[in-house]
Design goal:
By secondary structure, the protein is of the alpha/beta class. The chain has 14 helices and 15 strands. The strands form 4 sheets. A 5-stranded parallel beta sheet has the order 9-8-7-15-14. It has a 4-stranded parallel beta sheet with strand order 2-1-3-4. It is elongated. It starts with a strand and ends in a 6-residue tail after the last helix.
Length: 437
Protein backbone atom coordinates (compact mmCIF):
# COMPACT_ATOMS: atom_id res chain seq x y z
CA UNK A 1 0.00 0.00 0.00
CA UNK A 2 1.19 3.51 -0.82
CA UNK A 3 0.05 6.70 0.91
CA UNK A 4 0.63 10.09 -0.68
CA UNK A 5 0.99 13.25 1.39
CA UNK A 6 2.38 16.68 0.59
CA UNK A 7 4.61 16.34 3.67
CA UNK A 8 5.76 13.57 5.98
CA UNK A 9 5.63 14.43 9.70
CA UNK A 10 6.20 12.53 12.93
CA UNK A 11 2.50 12.75 13.71
CA UNK A 12 1.49 11.36 10.33
CA UNK A 13 3.95 8.46 10.36
CA UNK A 14 2.91 7.59 13.91
CA UNK A 15 -0.83 7.42 13.37
CA UNK A 16 -0.69 5.72 9.98
CA UNK A 17 1.55 3.05 11.50
CA UNK A 18 -0.89 2.47 14.38
CA UNK A 19 -4.03 2.40 12.25
CA UNK A 20 -2.80 0.53 9.19
CA UNK A 21 -1.20 -2.21 11.27
CA UNK A 22 -4.40 -2.48 13.32
CA UNK A 23 -6.35 -3.44 10.20
CA UNK A 24 -3.71 -5.87 8.99
CA UNK A 25 -1.65 -3.74 6.58
CA UNK A 26 1.93 -4.74 7.34
CA UNK A 27 3.64 -3.28 4.28
CA UNK A 28 3.07 0.31 3.24
CA UNK A 29 5.02 3.43 2.40
CA UNK A 30 4.42 7.17 2.52
CA UNK A 31 5.58 9.25 -0.41
CA UNK A 32 5.63 12.95 -1.23
CA UNK A 33 6.42 12.22 -4.88
CA UNK A 34 3.22 12.49 -6.87
CA UNK A 35 4.74 10.78 -9.92
CA UNK A 36 5.68 7.74 -7.84
CA UNK A 37 2.17 7.72 -6.43
CA UNK A 38 0.48 7.90 -9.84
CA UNK A 39 2.67 5.08 -11.19
CA UNK A 40 1.94 2.76 -8.25
CA UNK A 41 -0.34 -0.15 -9.21
CA UNK A 42 -1.45 -1.36 -5.76
CA UNK A 43 -3.84 0.06 -3.13
CA UNK A 44 -3.36 3.80 -2.72
CA UNK A 45 -4.44 6.42 -0.20
CA UNK A 46 -4.32 10.06 -1.16
CA UNK A 47 -3.94 12.22 1.94
CA UNK A 48 -3.96 15.64 0.34
CA UNK A 49 -6.33 18.49 -0.44
CA UNK A 50 -7.05 17.46 -4.05
CA UNK A 51 -8.05 14.25 -5.76
CA UNK A 52 -5.32 12.68 -7.89
CA UNK A 53 -6.80 9.52 -9.42
CA UNK A 54 -10.03 7.59 -9.74
CA UNK A 55 -8.29 4.51 -8.35
CA UNK A 56 -7.52 5.72 -4.84
CA UNK A 57 -8.94 6.35 -1.40
CA UNK A 58 -9.01 10.11 -0.99
CA UNK A 59 -8.87 11.48 2.55
CA UNK A 60 -8.72 15.26 2.68
CA UNK A 61 -6.61 16.36 5.68
CA UNK A 62 -7.08 18.99 8.34
CA UNK A 63 -3.93 20.71 9.57
CA UNK A 64 -3.40 18.79 12.85
CA UNK A 65 -0.86 16.23 11.63
CA UNK A 66 1.19 18.94 9.94
CA UNK A 67 1.47 21.06 13.08
CA UNK A 68 4.07 20.78 15.83
CA UNK A 69 2.51 22.91 18.54
CA UNK A 70 -0.38 22.11 20.89
CA UNK A 71 -3.41 24.38 20.75
CA UNK A 72 -7.20 24.18 21.02
CA UNK A 73 -8.71 22.56 17.94
CA UNK A 74 -11.98 23.42 16.24
CA UNK A 75 -14.13 20.33 16.69
CA UNK A 76 -17.67 19.83 15.46
CA UNK A 77 -19.13 16.34 15.67
CA UNK A 78 -21.38 14.74 13.08
CA UNK A 79 -22.56 11.25 12.17
CA UNK A 80 -20.78 9.02 9.65
CA UNK A 81 -22.16 5.54 9.05
CA UNK A 82 -24.05 5.79 12.35
CA UNK A 83 -20.86 6.67 14.25
CA UNK A 84 -19.82 9.96 15.81
CA UNK A 85 -16.99 11.62 13.87
CA UNK A 86 -15.19 14.96 13.79
CA UNK A 87 -12.64 16.91 11.72
CA UNK A 88 -15.09 16.97 8.80
CA UNK A 89 -13.54 17.48 5.36
CA UNK A 90 -14.48 17.05 1.71
CA UNK A 91 -12.71 13.81 0.83
CA UNK A 92 -14.59 11.64 -1.67
CA UNK A 93 -14.24 8.34 0.19
CA UNK A 94 -14.23 9.49 3.80
CA UNK A 95 -15.99 12.71 4.84
CA UNK A 96 -13.59 13.31 7.74
CA UNK A 97 -9.89 13.12 8.49
CA UNK A 98 -9.74 9.71 10.16
CA UNK A 99 -5.97 10.00 10.70
CA UNK A 100 -6.14 13.35 12.51
CA UNK A 101 -9.24 12.42 14.52
CA UNK A 102 -7.65 9.16 15.64
CA UNK A 103 -4.41 10.93 16.50
CA UNK A 104 -6.31 13.46 18.60
CA UNK A 105 -7.89 10.68 20.65
CA UNK A 106 -4.96 8.25 20.95
CA UNK A 107 -2.39 10.92 21.80
CA UNK A 108 -4.82 12.27 24.42
CA UNK A 109 -4.35 15.69 22.84
CA UNK A 110 -7.10 17.17 25.01
CA UNK A 111 -5.16 16.21 28.15
CA UNK A 112 -2.40 18.64 27.18
CA UNK A 113 -4.85 21.53 27.04
CA UNK A 114 -6.22 23.36 30.12
CA UNK A 115 -8.68 21.13 31.98
CA UNK A 116 -10.51 20.73 35.30
CA UNK A 117 -9.44 18.18 37.91
CA UNK A 118 -11.49 15.52 39.64
CA UNK A 119 -11.55 15.07 43.43
CA UNK A 120 -8.24 13.17 43.32
CA UNK A 121 -6.43 15.81 41.26
CA UNK A 122 -6.61 13.78 38.05
CA UNK A 123 -7.85 14.71 34.60
CA UNK A 124 -11.64 14.70 35.01
CA UNK A 125 -13.39 12.48 32.48
CA UNK A 126 -16.07 15.16 32.06
CA UNK A 127 -13.51 17.20 30.09
CA UNK A 128 -13.22 14.62 27.36
CA UNK A 129 -14.72 14.80 23.90
CA UNK A 130 -15.85 11.18 24.20
CA UNK A 131 -17.81 11.86 27.40
CA UNK A 132 -19.36 15.07 26.11
CA UNK A 133 -20.30 13.32 22.88
CA UNK A 134 -21.86 10.36 24.67
CA UNK A 135 -19.44 7.82 23.19
CA UNK A 136 -17.10 7.12 26.10
CA UNK A 137 -18.49 3.58 26.31
CA UNK A 138 -17.50 2.86 22.69
CA UNK A 139 -14.09 2.14 21.11
CA UNK A 140 -14.75 4.86 18.55
CA UNK A 141 -11.45 4.63 16.67
CA UNK A 142 -11.88 0.87 16.23
CA UNK A 143 -15.40 1.42 14.94
CA UNK A 144 -14.04 3.90 12.39
CA UNK A 145 -11.42 1.35 11.37
CA UNK A 146 -14.09 -1.29 10.77
CA UNK A 147 -15.80 1.04 8.30
CA UNK A 148 -12.48 2.14 6.82
CA UNK A 149 -11.66 -1.50 6.02
CA UNK A 150 -14.94 -1.79 4.14
CA UNK A 151 -14.08 1.30 2.08
CA UNK A 152 -10.62 -0.08 1.28
CA UNK A 153 -11.87 -3.53 0.31
CA UNK A 154 -14.61 -2.07 -1.85
CA UNK A 155 -12.12 0.06 -3.78
CA UNK A 156 -9.41 -2.62 -3.89
CA UNK A 157 -11.08 -6.07 -3.95
CA UNK A 158 -7.73 -7.86 -4.16
CA UNK A 159 -6.67 -6.34 -0.84
CA UNK A 160 -6.77 -8.93 1.95
CA UNK A 161 -7.04 -7.32 5.38
CA UNK A 162 -6.62 -9.50 8.46
CA UNK A 163 -6.91 -7.57 11.72
CA UNK A 164 -5.91 -9.22 14.97
CA UNK A 165 -8.38 -11.57 16.67
CA UNK A 166 -10.43 -10.57 19.69
CA UNK A 167 -8.86 -11.43 23.02
CA UNK A 168 -9.41 -11.07 26.74
CA UNK A 169 -6.87 -10.16 29.41
CA UNK A 170 -8.00 -10.34 33.06
CA UNK A 171 -5.88 -8.11 35.30
CA UNK A 172 -5.82 -7.65 39.07
CA UNK A 173 -4.60 -4.84 41.30
CA UNK A 174 -3.39 -6.06 44.69
CA UNK A 175 -3.77 -2.87 46.74
CA UNK A 176 -4.46 -4.52 50.10
CA UNK A 177 -3.56 -8.19 49.99
CA UNK A 178 -5.39 -9.12 53.21
CA UNK A 179 -7.97 -7.48 55.40
CA UNK A 180 -6.51 -8.70 58.72
CA UNK A 181 -3.52 -10.93 58.10
CA UNK A 182 0.10 -9.78 57.81
CA UNK A 183 -0.60 -6.23 58.95
CA UNK A 184 1.51 -6.35 62.10
CA UNK A 185 0.47 -5.96 65.72
CA UNK A 186 0.37 -2.15 65.65
CA UNK A 187 -2.10 -1.86 62.77
CA UNK A 188 -4.22 -4.73 64.09
CA UNK A 189 -4.33 -3.26 67.60
CA UNK A 190 -5.40 0.11 66.23
CA UNK A 191 -8.08 -1.54 64.13
CA UNK A 192 -9.35 -3.50 67.16
CA UNK A 193 -9.66 -0.32 69.20
CA UNK A 194 -11.50 1.57 66.43
CA UNK A 195 -13.90 -1.33 65.77
CA UNK A 196 -14.75 -1.72 69.46
CA UNK A 197 -15.15 2.03 69.83
CA UNK A 198 -17.64 2.03 66.95
CA UNK A 199 -19.49 -0.99 68.30
CA UNK A 200 -18.50 -3.14 65.31
CA UNK A 201 -18.47 -6.38 67.27
CA UNK A 202 -19.02 -8.64 64.24
CA UNK A 203 -15.86 -7.22 62.70
CA UNK A 204 -13.96 -7.70 65.96
CA UNK A 205 -15.07 -11.34 66.13
CA UNK A 206 -14.14 -11.92 62.49
CA UNK A 207 -10.70 -10.41 62.95
CA UNK A 208 -10.02 -12.63 65.97
CA UNK A 209 -11.06 -15.78 64.09
CA UNK A 210 -8.90 -14.90 61.09
CA UNK A 211 -5.85 -14.11 63.23
CA UNK A 212 -6.35 -17.37 65.11
CA UNK A 213 -6.44 -19.29 61.82
CA UNK A 214 -10.03 -20.38 62.33
CA UNK A 215 -11.42 -18.42 59.38
CA UNK A 216 -10.13 -17.37 55.96
CA UNK A 217 -9.21 -13.72 55.51
CA UNK A 218 -12.09 -11.98 53.68
CA UNK A 219 -9.73 -10.43 51.10
CA UNK A 220 -8.05 -13.76 50.28
CA UNK A 221 -9.31 -14.79 46.83
CA UNK A 222 -6.02 -16.08 45.40
CA UNK A 223 -6.67 -19.83 45.33
CA UNK A 224 -10.16 -19.23 43.98
CA UNK A 225 -8.74 -17.11 41.18
CA UNK A 226 -6.07 -19.71 40.38
CA UNK A 227 -8.75 -22.37 39.97
CA UNK A 228 -10.90 -20.06 37.83
CA UNK A 229 -7.98 -19.32 35.52
CA UNK A 230 -7.03 -22.99 35.20
CA UNK A 231 -10.57 -24.09 34.39
CA UNK A 232 -11.03 -21.45 31.70
CA UNK A 233 -7.41 -21.43 30.47
CA UNK A 234 -6.85 -17.76 31.18
CA UNK A 235 -3.49 -16.07 31.62
CA UNK A 236 -4.00 -13.23 34.12
CA UNK A 237 -1.77 -10.29 34.91
CA UNK A 238 -1.24 -9.12 38.52
CA UNK A 239 -0.08 -5.69 39.70
CA UNK A 240 1.35 -5.34 43.23
CA UNK A 241 1.44 -2.20 45.37
CA UNK A 242 4.73 -1.96 47.28
CA UNK A 243 4.70 1.39 49.05
CA UNK A 244 7.25 1.41 51.87
CA UNK A 245 5.16 3.83 53.90
CA UNK A 246 1.43 3.57 54.57
CA UNK A 247 0.20 7.05 53.79
CA UNK A 248 -2.92 8.54 52.20
CA UNK A 249 -4.22 6.23 49.49
CA UNK A 250 -1.37 3.74 49.99
CA UNK A 251 -2.59 1.19 52.53
CA UNK A 252 -0.89 -1.96 51.33
CA UNK A 253 0.80 -4.72 53.29
CA UNK A 254 4.45 -3.85 53.95
CA UNK A 255 6.80 -5.14 51.22
CA UNK A 256 9.05 -6.43 54.01
CA UNK A 257 6.31 -8.74 55.31
CA UNK A 258 7.22 -12.41 54.88
CA UNK A 259 3.67 -13.49 54.01
CA UNK A 260 3.26 -10.81 51.36
CA UNK A 261 6.65 -11.54 49.83
CA UNK A 262 5.85 -15.24 49.68
CA UNK A 263 2.53 -14.61 47.96
CA UNK A 264 4.16 -12.33 45.38
CA UNK A 265 6.87 -14.88 44.66
CA UNK A 266 4.34 -17.69 44.22
CA UNK A 267 2.25 -15.57 41.87
CA UNK A 268 5.28 -14.56 39.82
CA UNK A 269 6.17 -18.22 39.46
CA UNK A 270 3.06 -18.94 37.40
CA UNK A 271 1.79 -15.59 36.07
CA UNK A 272 3.16 -12.34 34.63
CA UNK A 273 3.25 -9.52 37.16
CA UNK A 274 3.77 -5.78 37.16
CA UNK A 275 4.31 -2.88 39.53
CA UNK A 276 1.38 -0.88 40.89
CA UNK A 277 3.20 2.41 41.58
CA UNK A 278 2.08 3.96 44.85
CA UNK A 279 0.36 7.31 45.05
CA UNK A 280 3.47 8.62 46.75
CA UNK A 281 5.67 7.64 43.81
CA UNK A 282 3.41 9.29 41.27
CA UNK A 283 5.83 12.19 40.77
CA UNK A 284 8.90 10.79 42.50
CA UNK A 285 11.34 8.91 40.29
CA UNK A 286 13.44 7.66 43.22
CA UNK A 287 10.43 6.11 44.96
CA UNK A 288 9.21 4.58 41.71
CA UNK A 289 12.53 2.92 40.89
CA UNK A 290 12.79 1.73 44.50
CA UNK A 291 9.36 0.06 44.31
CA UNK A 292 10.23 -1.59 41.01
CA UNK A 293 13.55 -2.82 42.41
CA UNK A 294 11.73 -4.20 45.45
CA UNK A 295 9.29 -6.16 43.28
CA UNK A 296 12.16 -7.49 41.17
CA UNK A 297 14.03 -8.59 44.28
CA UNK A 298 10.99 -10.36 45.74
CA UNK A 299 9.82 -12.02 42.53
CA UNK A 300 13.15 -12.76 40.87
CA UNK A 301 11.64 -11.34 37.67
CA UNK A 302 12.48 -8.30 35.59
CA UNK A 303 9.57 -5.87 35.88
CA UNK A 304 8.51 -4.08 32.71
CA UNK A 305 4.72 -3.74 33.21
CA UNK A 306 2.95 -1.08 35.27
CA UNK A 307 -0.44 0.35 36.23
CA UNK A 308 -0.86 3.49 38.31
CA UNK A 309 -2.50 3.15 41.73
CA UNK A 310 -5.86 4.99 41.67
CA UNK A 311 -5.06 5.60 37.98
CA UNK A 312 -3.00 8.59 39.10
CA UNK A 313 -1.75 9.77 35.73
CA UNK A 314 -0.72 13.09 34.25
CA UNK A 315 0.50 13.45 30.69
CA UNK A 316 3.26 13.57 29.71
CA UNK A 317 4.93 13.44 33.15
CA UNK A 318 3.76 10.01 34.32
CA UNK A 319 4.71 8.20 31.15
CA UNK A 320 8.11 9.87 31.02
CA UNK A 321 8.77 8.69 34.58
CA UNK A 322 7.78 5.15 33.66
CA UNK A 323 10.05 5.12 30.60
CA UNK A 324 12.97 6.45 32.66
CA UNK A 325 12.34 3.65 35.19
CA UNK A 326 12.56 0.98 32.49
CA UNK A 327 8.83 0.26 32.10
CA UNK A 328 7.91 -1.06 28.64
CA UNK A 329 4.13 -1.54 29.01
CA UNK A 330 1.59 0.60 30.85
CA UNK A 331 -1.96 -0.49 31.68
CA UNK A 332 -3.29 2.80 33.10
CA UNK A 333 -5.11 4.15 30.03
CA UNK A 334 -8.61 4.36 31.43
CA UNK A 335 -10.40 6.35 34.09
CA UNK A 336 -10.54 5.83 37.83
CA UNK A 337 -13.87 7.64 37.95
CA UNK A 338 -15.97 5.99 35.24
CA UNK A 339 -15.77 2.98 32.96
CA UNK A 340 -15.18 3.45 29.26
CA UNK A 341 -12.50 3.92 26.60
CA UNK A 342 -10.32 6.86 27.64
CA UNK A 343 -8.45 6.87 24.32
CA UNK A 344 -11.50 5.59 22.38
CA UNK A 345 -9.39 2.56 21.44
CA UNK A 346 -9.13 -1.07 22.55
CA UNK A 347 -5.83 -2.34 21.15
CA UNK A 348 -2.25 -1.87 22.39
CA UNK A 349 -0.39 1.03 20.80
CA UNK A 350 2.78 3.07 21.28
CA UNK A 351 2.60 6.27 23.30
CA UNK A 352 3.23 9.48 21.35
CA UNK A 353 4.82 12.22 23.46
CA UNK A 354 2.93 15.22 22.16
CA UNK A 355 5.21 17.86 23.70
CA UNK A 356 8.32 16.26 22.22
CA UNK A 357 6.39 15.39 19.06
CA UNK A 358 7.83 11.89 18.88
CA UNK A 359 6.87 8.23 19.17
CA UNK A 360 8.15 6.54 22.33
CA UNK A 361 8.99 2.88 23.10
CA UNK A 362 6.24 2.71 25.77
CA UNK A 363 3.32 0.45 24.79
CA UNK A 364 -0.12 1.43 26.07
CA UNK A 365 -2.66 -1.26 26.96
CA UNK A 366 -6.04 0.46 27.46
CA UNK A 367 -8.57 -0.95 29.91
CA UNK A 368 -12.30 -0.20 29.74
CA UNK A 369 -13.74 -1.81 32.87
CA UNK A 370 -12.84 -1.63 36.56
CA UNK A 371 -15.21 -3.06 39.14
CA UNK A 372 -14.36 -0.27 41.61
CA UNK A 373 -15.75 2.27 39.13
CA UNK A 374 -18.99 0.31 38.88
CA UNK A 375 -19.31 -0.01 42.66
CA UNK A 376 -17.98 3.25 44.11
CA UNK A 377 -18.38 5.77 41.30
CA UNK A 378 -21.31 4.57 39.21
CA UNK A 379 -23.15 3.06 42.21
CA UNK A 380 -24.09 -0.08 40.27
CA UNK A 381 -25.43 -3.24 41.82
CA UNK A 382 -23.64 -6.50 41.09
CA UNK A 383 -26.33 -7.48 38.56
CA UNK A 384 -26.05 -4.12 36.81
CA UNK A 385 -22.28 -4.56 36.71
CA UNK A 386 -22.72 -7.87 34.87
CA UNK A 387 -24.77 -6.08 32.22
CA UNK A 388 -22.03 -3.48 31.94
CA UNK A 389 -19.37 -6.17 31.54
CA UNK A 390 -21.43 -7.79 28.81
CA UNK A 391 -21.59 -4.47 26.97
CA UNK A 392 -17.81 -4.08 26.98
CA UNK A 393 -17.36 -7.69 25.93
CA UNK A 394 -19.74 -7.20 22.99
CA UNK A 395 -18.37 -3.89 21.67
CA UNK A 396 -14.74 -5.00 22.03
CA UNK A 397 -15.35 -8.34 20.34
CA UNK A 398 -17.20 -6.64 17.47
CA UNK A 399 -14.07 -4.68 16.58
CA UNK A 400 -11.58 -7.53 17.19
CA UNK A 401 -10.12 -5.67 20.15
CA UNK A 402 -8.39 -6.63 23.39
CA UNK A 403 -10.75 -6.57 26.37
CA UNK A 404 -8.82 -5.64 29.51
CA UNK A 405 -10.66 -5.64 32.84
CA UNK A 406 -9.47 -4.68 36.31
CA UNK A 407 -10.56 -6.47 39.48
CA UNK A 408 -9.25 -6.29 43.03
CA UNK A 409 -8.74 -9.29 45.30
CA UNK A 410 -10.99 -7.82 48.01
CA UNK A 411 -14.00 -7.72 45.65
CA UNK A 412 -13.57 -11.44 44.99
CA UNK A 413 -13.21 -12.71 48.55
CA UNK A 414 -15.82 -13.08 51.29
CA UNK A 415 -16.09 -9.50 52.55
CA UNK A 416 -19.80 -8.79 53.09
CA UNK A 417 -19.38 -5.32 51.61
CA UNK A 418 -18.89 -6.91 48.19
CA UNK A 419 -21.47 -9.70 48.38
CA UNK A 420 -22.45 -10.87 44.90
CA UNK A 421 -19.50 -9.43 42.99
CA UNK A 422 -17.46 -12.63 43.06
CA UNK A 423 -20.44 -14.48 41.57
CA UNK A 424 -20.85 -11.83 38.87
CA UNK A 425 -17.24 -12.20 37.78
CA UNK A 426 -17.45 -15.98 37.76
CA UNK A 427 -20.64 -15.87 35.72
CA UNK A 428 -19.05 -13.55 33.19
CA UNK A 429 -16.02 -15.83 32.81
CA UNK A 430 -18.21 -18.92 32.47
CA UNK A 431 -20.31 -17.32 29.73
CA UNK A 432 -17.22 -16.61 27.68
CA UNK A 433 -14.96 -19.50 28.68
CA UNK A 434 -13.69 -19.97 25.13
CA UNK A 435 -11.68 -16.78 25.47
CA UNK A 436 -7.95 -17.33 25.89
CA UNK A 437 -5.00 -15.02 25.54
Amino acid sequence: MLLYSSAVTNRLTYITDVLLKAIGVEQYEITTNIEVYVAFKGPRINYSKAAISEQEIWIAPVSLLFEEDIKPQSIEVFLWREQTAFFKTFGKDLPFDIFAASFYLLSRYEEYLPYSLDMYGRYAHENSLAFKGGVLQLPLVNLWLNEFMKVLEQSFPALSLKPSAFNFLPTYDIDIAWSYLNKGWLRNTGAFVRAMGNGQWAMVKERVKVLQGKQKDPFDSYNWLDNLHKIHKLQPLYFFLLANKNKGYDKNISPTNTGYRGMIKRTAGTHPIGIHPSWQSGDNNKLLTKEIASLESISGKQISKSRQHYIRMKLPDTYRLLIAAGIKEDYSMGYGSINGFRASYCLPYKWFDLEKNTTTPLSIYPFCYMEANSYFEQKYSADRALEELEHYYKVTKNVSGLLITIWHNHFLGTDKMFTGWKEVYEEFIKRHSIITR
